[in-house]
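Private note to self, pasted from the team thread so I don't lose it. Backbone tokens:
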């Protein structure tokens, strides 16, 4: 059976976007054109892939099965075709990264401007996601994650600082009113500003000094979605609402100017920095290869 690659891409765009209008906006096509392509594909396959209503589009079981296999397959096709790009004098094309908000805020700002200046024909698209996703199925070339969340068959390249710390902090006004904790367990008596992942999990606050590791689950009046609403917790801490626990680098500007005061600094726990990861496949798209080389060159010892 011969199926048009464009029709498969149209289905993929609609399925990922959750609708024809959003799929058209992302792919640069028209909604009517995508609708016709998907209908043509369904006719050729003899099975319905999408259930359509006037307000929504949902995958059928057959559509879900096709999507699960199609995303990685088309990515491989694009990578194979991209071999030709390697013969160009300068890499060109799209580079899609899936990263946590913390990486978009703390890691990429020191890398992206220089990379775009060095490779002006590369179009970089950055998508933030706090959940661990299959980068190929998500339509991305690579992602940024920490080592405990890397899959074993991925290639991992260090990116950003190699050692980071979690920090606890509060405004001086809050600490004057409520006192300064001496031990992590003292936080159980304080007002703490928590975060919750999209999965519903609320990470514990973990502290370490010497061989002693203390994990606590403090309470407080504010819980924010990790990533997208993290700045709200920081703003609340700046206003004296309670103690925040976050990447030290995220809080560092406020600590340096005295708007926030370190809490339990001798207990701040260190952890290894993030990695750029991508599938260990034979063909690496030229824009990704350029990005990897750029990162390696920028981190190489002088």
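Design output:
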């Amino acid at each position: 059976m011969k199926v048009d690659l464009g029709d498969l891409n149209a289905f993929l765009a609609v399925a990922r976007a959750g609708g024809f209008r959003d799929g058209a906006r992302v792919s640069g096509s028209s909604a009517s054109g995508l609708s016709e392509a998907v209908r043509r594909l369904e006719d050729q396959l003899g099975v319905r892939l999408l259930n359509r209503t006037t307000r929504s589009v949902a995958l059928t079981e057959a559509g879900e099965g096709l999507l699960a296999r199609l995303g990685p397959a088309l990515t491989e096709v694009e990578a194979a075709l991209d071999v030709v790009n390697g013969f160009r004098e300068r890499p060109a094309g799209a580079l899609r990264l899936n990263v946590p908000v913390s990486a978009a805020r703390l890691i990429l700002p020191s890398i992206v401007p220089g990379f775009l200046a060095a490779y002006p024909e590369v179009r970089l698209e950055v998508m933030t996601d706090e959940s661990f996703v299959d980068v190929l199925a998500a339509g991305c070339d690579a992602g940024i994650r920490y080592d405990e969340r890397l899959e074993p068959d991925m290639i991992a390249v260090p990116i950003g600082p190699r050692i980071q710390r979690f920090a606890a902090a509060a405004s001086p006004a809050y600490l004057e009113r409520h006192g300064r904790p001496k031990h992590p367990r003292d936080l159980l008596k304080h007002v703490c500003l928590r975060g919750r992942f999209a999965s519903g999990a609320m990470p514990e606050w973990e502290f370490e000094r010497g061989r002693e590791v203390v994990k606590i689950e403090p309470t407080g009046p504010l819980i924010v979605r990790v990533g997208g609403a993290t700045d709200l917790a920081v703003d609340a801490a700046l206003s004296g609402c309670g103690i925040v626990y976050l990447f030290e680098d995220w809080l560092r500007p406020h600590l340096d100017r005295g708007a926030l005061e370190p809490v339990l600094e001798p207990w701040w726990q260190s952890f290894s920095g993030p990695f750029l990861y991508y599938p260990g496949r034979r063909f690496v798209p030229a824009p990704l290869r350029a990005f990897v080389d750029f990162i390696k060159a920028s981190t190489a010892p002088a």
